[in-house]
Amino acid sequence: MLAYWGMVLRSVLWALGCALLVACGGSSDGGVDSGSGGGGSDCDVAASLAPAFGGADQTAFESGSGTSGADPHYMQYLGRLDGDAKYDQLVIELAAGIGTYDGTDIAPKSIALTGDETQYRTCGACVRVLADVDEDATSVGQYYMATGGTLDVTSTSDQLEATLTDVTFVEVAIGSDFTSTPTGSCATAVPALAISAHIDLHQ
User: Is the pTM higher than 0.70?
Assistant: First the structure.
C-alpha cells in the first residue's frame, strides 16, 4: 500500500503535471469510444511512434528535494510528438521515494517498465503518451500508460537524458486516487527513442 507521503507526492506531481501539460481539463476516460487498437478509427495515436525531436520540442523541469516530506524530488519531461493543433505528447515523470525509486532519490538507472511502473498510482518512473492535447481547450483526448519495455535514464543532473526501448502503451483512465485502469483497446508503442532536455527548476 502506498505510504501517506507517497500519496502527497502523487498529489504534488499531479498538480504540477496539470499546470504544465494543460492536461487535466478532460474527462477521466478521455471522453472517447474504445477502438480496435493503435491507429484504429477511434484511437488518437498511431500503432507505432518514431518521433524525431528538435530542441524546441523537448522540455524538462524538476522540483522538491529528498525522498519524503511535503515536497519530495520530482522531474518531468515533455516531448511534443507532432506539430498538430491537437498534438500528441510523450510524458516521463520521475519521482523520488516511490516505485523504482522507493527509498532513494532520483538517479540514473535502467528501469524495467513492469509492476509498479505500469500503474500511475505507484510508479516512480511514469511513462505516458497523451493524445490530442488541445492547447486552447486545455483537454486531452486519450491517456496511454506504459505496459512494458525499458527506460534507461543516463543523466539526471542539469540535463535529463534517457532512452526508451520496446516500450508499449495501452489507453487508460486515471481516477481521482491516481489509479490508472486500462480502457478500450487502443494501444501504441515506441520501439526506440533517445531523449535529451535541459532541466529547469520549477518555481
Answer: yes
